[in-house]
UniProtKB/TrEMBL annotation:
<dbReference type="GO" id="GO:0003700">
    <property type="term" value="F:DNA-binding transcription factor activity"/>
</dbReference>
<dbReference type="InterPro" id="IPR000847">
    <property type="entry name" value="LysR_HTH_N"/>
</dbReference>
<keyword id="KW-0805">Transcription regulation</keyword>
<dbReference type="GO" id="GO:0003677">
    <property type="term" value="F:DNA binding"/>
</dbReference>
<dbReference type="Pfam" id="PF03466">
    <property type="entry name" value="LysR_substrate"/>
</dbReference>
<feature type="domain" description="HTH lysR-type">
    <location>
        <begin position="3"/>
        <end position="60"/>
    </location>
</feature>
<dbReference type="InterPro" id="IPR036388">
    <property type="entry name" value="WH-like_DNA-bd_sf"/>
</dbReference>
<dbReference type="InterPro" id="IPR005119">
    <property type="entry name" value="LysR_subst-bd"/>
</dbReference>
<dbReference type="InterPro" id="IPR050950">
    <property type="entry name" value="HTH-type_LysR_regulators"/>
</dbReference>
<protein>
    <submittedName>
        <fullName>LysR family transcriptional regulator</fullName>
    </submittedName>
</protein>
<dbReference type="Pfam" id="PF00126">
    <property type="entry name" value="HTH_1"/>
</dbReference>
<keyword id="KW-0238">DNA-binding</keyword>
<dbReference type="GO" id="GO:0005829">
    <property type="term" value="C:cytosol"/>
</dbReference>
<dbReference type="InterPro" id="IPR036390">
    <property type="entry name" value="WH_DNA-bd_sf"/>
</dbReference>
<keyword id="KW-0804">Transcription</keyword>
<comment type="similarity">
    <text>Belongs to the LysR transcriptional regulatory family.</text>
</comment>
Amino acid sequence: MRFDLADFRLFLCVVEAGSITGGAARANLALASASERLRNMESDAGVQLLVRGARGVTTTEAGEALAHHARLMLRQQAALMSELQGFADGEKGTLHLYANTAALTEFLPGRLARWLAGRPHLNVELKERTSADIVRTIAAGLAEAGIVSDAAEVPGLSFQPIAEDHLVLLLPPEHGFASAGAACFADLLNEPFVGLAPGNALQDHIEDHARSAGRSLSVRIRMKTFDGVCEMVSHGIGVAVMPKGIASRYRRRHAYRTLPLQDRWALRQLCLCHGDWQALCAPMKSLLLHLGAKPNAP
């Protein structure tokens, strides 16, 4: 059988109208065209679907079965079209957003929660990477957008600052540097460090800068959370580097000193990073606008 959705619509129109003439009118078809299509349906099915009489038409048992399944299929089609329209409007689907550690920890939670709350059928998959990795991924066309530090700019991509993300040094209260006004990262490379777990984007970033200075960090212990790092530093286990906002938050429960880092790479800003704005999907544009994107900015 070669029935299509138009056949099903016509058949239901005829059944509901009780006549081929009325059904043809409901389906916006000429009577001759509707009659021929119905005869072709019966021929393809190999069974009579309608009983034609002077007062109109009634369905045979086979016609009743066809009408039942036609209604189901048309409802499924309507549900499918509605769901697809949801994807087209940006109300459904999954967005993949890349972000560095500071953005994931401090910047995104509150802002992303407000945006997602109004879109119950939309999901966001957050992927933590270093800023350099995120920029390479976007430049290669493997991701639409991310949140990175301003030290990772690449020609051809858009970078728009949205928040400060300065890194600071955490010191035990009695550490010799504690009374200094600021420090350079290179001056600390002889110190024992408290680090984050392997694979953490911020920790990888810090260790990359140590290697650039020709050294490697002496990490006494690695913790899975910033809270754990702060606990270790407050007990004199070592020093650590983390975003200023996070360090300020945990000072309420741990005793340590913070010291600004003078290195240019530590004086960071969080930036939205993406390629051609017009090439972004509708929900990604909506999210980036919510986070502070200005698509017409130079």
